Amino acid sequence: MSSPKYHAFMCNTSRPDGHPRGCCTSKGGGQPLFDRLMQKFQAAMLWDKGVSIAQASCLGTCNAGPVMVVYPENVWYSPKTNEDIDEIVKSHFREGKVVERLVFTP
Ligand code: FES
To answer: Options 3.30.420.40, 3.40.30.10, 3.40.50.300, 2.40.50.1070; which CATH number does 6-102 get?
Structure first.
């Protein structure tokens, strides 16, 4: 089995309101944003292009949420909208170009 070209992990953590760390779900991420990623992943048949995606628990960068990290490049994204997800899929996963405007340093 070969290693994926890109392996993306997207935080899907949810915490109660008022939790001191907050969470990606309360900042507009969570399941709806992951569902969009999965929808685009399937539509573009990215598994055939060596891309793998997975939901993750807290990645430790809650202040930047919602967050996604892409390996092996170790690129950290903070996508806020469906359009941001669409751009990451098109630019990074299909064309190999990092979407700089959505990158943050953990
Ligand atoms: S809750 Fe998403 S990074 Fe911590």
So the answer is: 3.40.30.10
